[in-house]
Amino acid sequence: MQWIRQTFAVLALNVRTIPQRLSSSGVAIVGIAGVVVVFVSVLSIAAGFAAAMQSSGSPDRALVMRSGADSEMTSGLSGVDVDVIKQAPGIRRDGQAPLAAAELVVIIDLPKITSPDAPANVPVRGIGPESIPLRSEFSIVEGRMFKFGTNEVIAGRAAKGQFVNLNVGNTVVSGQNRWDVVGIFESDGGVAETEIWIDARTLQGAYRRGNTYQSLLARLESRDSYDAFRDWLTSNPQLNVSIRRENEYYASQSQALTRLIRTIGFGIAALMGIGAVFGAILTMYTAVATRAREIATLRALGFNTGSVLVSVLAESMVLGLIGGTIGGAAAYLAFNGYQTSTMNFQTFSQVAFAFRVTPQLLAMGLFYALLMGLIGGLFPAIRAARLPIPVALREL
Amino acid sequence: MKFLPLIWKNIWRRKFRTVFTLLSIFIAFVLFGILMTIRYSFAFGVEIAGADRLVLIHKVSLIMPLPVSYQARLQQTKGVEVATHQTWFGGIYQDPSNFFANMAVEPEPFLKIYPEFQLPPEQIQAWRNDRQGAIVGRDIAQRFGWKIGDRVPLTAAIWLPKGGGTTWEFNIVGIYDGGDTVDKTQMFFRYDYLDENRARGQGQVGWYVVKISDPAQAVDLSRTFDEMFANSAAETKTTTEKGFIEGFAKQIGDIGSIVIAISSTVLVMFGLVAASTMAQSVRERTSELAVLKTLGFTGPMILTLVLAESLFIAFTGGLLGLGLAWLFVQGGDPTNGMLPIFVLPPRDVVMGIALMALIGMLAGLMPAIAAMRLKITDALRRT
């Protein structure tokens, strides 16, 4: 009990005198804050991208592609295939009509708003009338839905924010094609919001695709009817297709990029952390050195070594806490929700997403900051505890 | 020069502090070196792109095919040395996570256009003789343990074979090498093999690469090409190879500025550590400096003494750090193929050295000026 009281007494003294050692404490705080900013902001890129991909798919829908295709871009289905697939059991039916739509995707070059001279690969998705009721998360937020059989298109909200000329009333020019933008849609923040949607038949005509598609999206009767649906298709000798749940398809596409960003983020943060620990060690040694006499006095008065040790460690962790909080707050204010887009290599098309500074990332950053404070304080604390009292009292 | 021992003594008066300052600058420059390598890697070697090479892609987008018939018309254009085409194959070796670039090309013009790919003459001959022959980069051969004579199966993602199934087989007939900045993780095989055996898409190619005799004509020739194919089913867009790669890199996003932002944070942070330590070390020595002045040291001499000390720390820590980063980069790409070009560009080494000088100056300048202006009487009275 007394030990704890002593520890708190010394700690309070230490913390109260931090302002007197502002420039030296500042070094440790700035160092730790810098590490946390970089750590949290780099990982928020990965978190944002993964979140965009995860909200893109639903386990209630299944995506059918040609066997061996690793993405919609490399897949191909004929009109005949599509008719056969729509017969499969397990598809939810609206009266007689199956809730399934064959779609195709073409990539066109449009300039980005941030770098108008460099083209970006924007996916244009040809959809059928069933494509809309299939996706319950879809909604028009501006203008109206396009009319099938015309040259009208609708653009995703993120696409409108990233690429030039995608406002309602604009015309998209690609090669010899001209499409009128009549609406803007949302889709739960998913990948679809980076796309432009058009009537599949108009798109087939524009790019001489005949009656071919790339994928078929089907709404399942229930989550469990997936197996029946898949087995019927894979055992059908007329077809050569592979089936995946839509959410799994998108999740697998985010793996390569998120892994790369995480590797880089953790690597940089680890190296920077070592540097910040050096900064903290310097600070704490200075703190101990300038107070050698006070510490010796306390110990001469009967304060025990443990209290001194813990109090120095705790002071160092307080610095870590301050640095971590400043760093986390800075990363949150500067980057949370920052809109950007990158290229998804599997589909070769742009995906817009927002950086996400999640509570987990902030907690991780704070934990890391405390850890740096702890390690930084360790040796100075041992030194303070071991300080020979007579020598320290005689100093100065 | 005769003051070197004095500077040396001053640097090590508090060994512990100096060592830690050195270490933090060391870490800062290890990071700087690695970050610059990553930045360069994401630029896809744009700085080495040939100024005499033009790339023609479909006007709608890179993934739309062009007809093979354009080659003859390009080749006949005045000012063109060699015109050839390439086609993205996108084959998968065993598992999709083993991603690497594989393309169908025409061997002879390909090697003529890209002299940076070095291939022994007997291997070129072997490629000429074997329709299923393929050449691979040294790095990718090492990664998968491929040797000349191996038969390698790839699973088709785009082009299915005519005979059914999804597998294409290739014979490794050559292993190309090249300088640091050449991507050695690619595989090239013969277009005639692809075109004869694919189920659909006969006569289509991915894009064209044209070597022109005079780089100054690049703009004019680009316009000529695009006009040549205007109003056809496949209109083209021609750019220099540099412009093409830059555009591609921009698609991924502005990695460059993110990396520069991180590097600046790192350097500012560690510069601050160095500066604060330096200032403290000078402050502690106020009375000694005053004694030196009494002994006849002039203000500028004191300034030099203090600056020499901080520059020494900045350069020692910085050069060791950059050296370690360089060694690390020599070890090659740690991500297994995601960063094919992994080198520390000499330009960034020079910049690093300039930054060391800057940090050393900034850290030492304030305390040095304070020390120079010191009034002997004040300083001696202070303690």
Q: First CA to last CA of chain A: what distance?
A: 34 Å
Biggest chain pair contact, residues each? A-B, 58 and 55 residues
Structural class of chain A: alpha+beta
Give the total of beta strands of chain B.
11
What would you report as the Rg of chain B, rounded to the nearest angstrom? Answer: 29 Å
**CA-based shape of chain A:** elongated
Helices and strands, with pairings:
The complex is a heterodimer of chains A (396) and B (383).
Chain A: H1 2-16, H2 22-54, E1 61-66, E2 77-78, H3 79-85, E3 93-94, E4 97-98, E5 100-111, E6 119-127, H4 131-134, E7 139-143, E8 152-156, H5 157-162, E9 171-174, E10 177-186, E11 196-199, H6 200-206, E12 212-213, E13 215-219, H7 226-234, E14 241-245, H8 246-290, H9 292-300, H10 305-335, E15 339-344, E16 349-354, H11 359-386, H12 389-394
Parallel strand pairs in A: 6-11, 8-10
Antiparallel strand pairs in A: 1-13, 1-14, 2-12, 3-4, 5-6, 5-13, 7-10, 8-11, 9-10, 15-16
Helix pairs in contact in A: 1-10, 2-8, 2-10, 2-11, 8-11, 10-11
Chain B: H1 4-11, H2 15-42, E1 53-58, E2 66-67, H3 70-76, E3 80-88, E4 102-105, H4 107-113, H5 121-129, E5 133-137, H6 138-144, E6 151-155, E7 167-176, E8 187-190, H7 191-197, E9 204-205, E10 207-212, H8 218-228, E11 236-240, H9 241-252, H10 255-284, H11 286-294, H12 299-330, H13 346-373, H14 376-382
Parallel strand pairs in B: 4-8, 5-7
Antiparallel strand pairs in B: 1-10, 1-11, 2-9, 3-4, 3-10, 5-8, 6-7
Helix pairs in contact in B: 1-12, 2-10, 2-12, 10-13, 11-14, 12-13
